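Protein 1 of 2
SEQ + STRUCT:
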Amino acid sequence: MLGLIHYFDVPMVEDQGAITLMKNAVCMHEEDYGILWKHFDFRTGLHQVRRSRRLVISFFATVGNYDYGFYWYLYQDGTIQLEVKLPGIIQTAAVVPGAEYSFGGTVAKGLGGPNHQHFFCARMHMMVDGEQNSVTEHEYHPRPWGKDNP
């Protein structure tokens, strides 16, 4: 982690429509992400190294027995990455001693953990520098061998 870290308060709507302010609910900080690029110029003897940085915006959401950690990574080249971590406690089911648990795996004597999946969906409206954004793809090919390209 580098430099400053900032926590944001977030207003949340409760079941009956009332607003509650969640203190320090979202965290933002900058991380060192290793070497961005490195070059040694053998002609001049000069070395250059630049570090990569990424901006991290993170929060946790508790749903039932799970605590989901959401980590948005914003990189210098424009890449956006989402990592979701699931450090919660699994929901278990009692299993009769000696019986097989056919809905998942046995996690301890007399306890089964059901097979299931977690799906996350993010809708992003990219409005970088206004509404006139565009995406282009460039595919470069070498010139064919020939008299003008030996």
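Protein 2 of 2
SEQ + STRUCT:
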Amino acid sequence: MAPISVLVHGLGNIGRCVIQSVETAPDMECLGVVRTPSSVGSKTLDLRGVQDFDSLESLIKAKGKPQVAIICGPSRLVPEDAERYLKAGLNTVDSFDIHDQVPALVEKLGRTAVEAGSAAITAAGWDPGTDSVMRAIFEAMAPAGTTFTNFGRGRSMGHSVAARAIKGVAEATSITIPIGGGRHSRLVYVLPEAGAAKEEIKSLLASDDYFSHDPLDVRFVDSRAELEAVADNSHGVLMERIGSSGQTSNQRLSFDMRIDNPALTAQVLVSSARATTRLNPGSYTLIDVPPVALLPGDRMRHVARLV
């Protein structure tokens, strides 16, 4: 059987890890990376021998049409990027992480996907994504109760990207600190641009939707080296549910993981890219996708092995 052909959109932290995950997948191949024209030809080591292109059209002309676009750009650009690839007849996966906007995005991409005969899996990181699946399973096991999802401590890729987009910010890293009970604070290290007003940066960060709902601590650094000292990729989650099964209370469920953030996000995206080739046209999140569709190989082999 021919391998599933993918393109990677973007070569940031997640895009680089996606290339590595595709390399290890037994049933996939990467036809190329689509980047902004000014970036093509740079960071060749990160490309790991994969060719980069300035557009989907130039990639198709050189390599043929891929089946799936793995979108690795900022969440705020995902709706536009995903629609463009869907309209071109490709399946898409992305790690859109603005939680309260996910339902609207699912409906928007769904209309485009059905019209184009394509499949999209959105919000397919680890949260939202695989953690969403765990929350659904926990509720199936204990329907009445409360689930707390506690992130970190660790570097949030989405919040870091949002911080870097703030006017006056040259570079930034956002650390998520769990307070407990599903609440978090944000510690943002900022390298300001020369001459930037620090108080204005603080004000813009505090009003940004990524940061406005949580306690925020902004700390300024003087160099990229100082920033790199706090910008490792570690992250994690502790999810806990206390509830009842039927009429029996005090059921206690927990899920705990400590991870490299971009590596895990990338692996979920690659597994989701596989799943899109097994779905009908439409838009999905991971709670809609049968887990077996994420795995390579024969379904019944996994049934025999895992059930």
